[in-house]
Write the structure tokens for this entry.
Amino acid sequence: MKNLFITMALMVVSLTTFAKDNFKMTGRIDGAGNDTLCIEYIILQPKKQVITHKVAVKNGEFSFSTKLREAYYGTMYLKSNPQEILSTYFVPDEEAVFSGKLNEEEEHWSGTVFYQQYGRIIDIRRPFTIEFAAVRNEPDSIRGLKNLNINNRKEPIYMKYIEEHPDEDATATLVVYVGYDNVLTAISKLTPEVRNGRMKTELDRTEKSFTQVMKGVAARKAVKNDTVTIGGQVLELGLKDLQGNVLELKSLRGKYVVLDFWGSWCTWCIKGFPKLKEYYAKYKDRLEIVGIDCNDTAEKWAAAVKKHNVPWLHVRSEDGIAEQKFRVQGYPYKVLISPEGIVLKAYLGETEEFYQHLDSTLGR
């Protein structure tokens, strides 16, 4: 019996500890009276969901606490003025103190260690943020040149800060401001403790995003003007199938061909499979489909093909060049090719027009 009571007591302590808030934020919003502060961020585990906290603001002051599993990038805005949104970070085991207004030009942060570091970074960014705001309403040609000048001045300063403070968690918030072609380099300069610590999820997301960006940049340089046009001859892609063999489109001459650009991560692509399967079965004697997997790992690609039992041919674009050649604008993206290898039309998204075109072309 004594052991039972001890066990129950430990469970209560454990649950109490688990439920304890580990993030607190207090502050004063200049110009705000009595209002509601909306704090939002996205959590991915155990399932993706948007978390919204509504915090009472009295005479401009507020206080808020919650339990965070990891650091989240999110937003803050007043219910009375949802157009003015401030993006920031909510970090576990820290206390944040905010002052100023909910915009990048007038935000100020202090508190425990992370927010002291973050406050310094915001102070370094502020002069350039104000400059960007000042040219926001300039004509495009003038704004573009002025923004380029600002970027050329700020990026070396930001990179130097990252190099000098690689062991501070808040430095991770600065990596996205060094210019898209330097983001991956900036991440690599962080210490392993910072890279794999509280900011890991956000850094993983940033690294994945900018890896895709740089792949696209490299693909555009490789392709240059060698792109497919409607009414022109289809280009060979040199892509490998699930068995590692290169699939040549010329081997499919004599049939209509649909190139289906998709990815295991693309919800709409997956949702479109049932109807695409229906049409594949309907016109299989005159139609071939080639699924081109994009922005995926080989493992996720193969698993998705198996899971959804997709019966047509499959290849994978590893370098993004195929997407550039066909000017893919989003996913799913379908390209219809004639039996002679002429590009007839392209379709973005799941659209009835695509299936109507198949019926009118193949249903004769």
Q: What stands out?
A: The two ends are 82 Å apart (CA to CA). Confidence is low (pLDDT under 50) at residues 4-18. The chain has eleven helices and 15 strands.
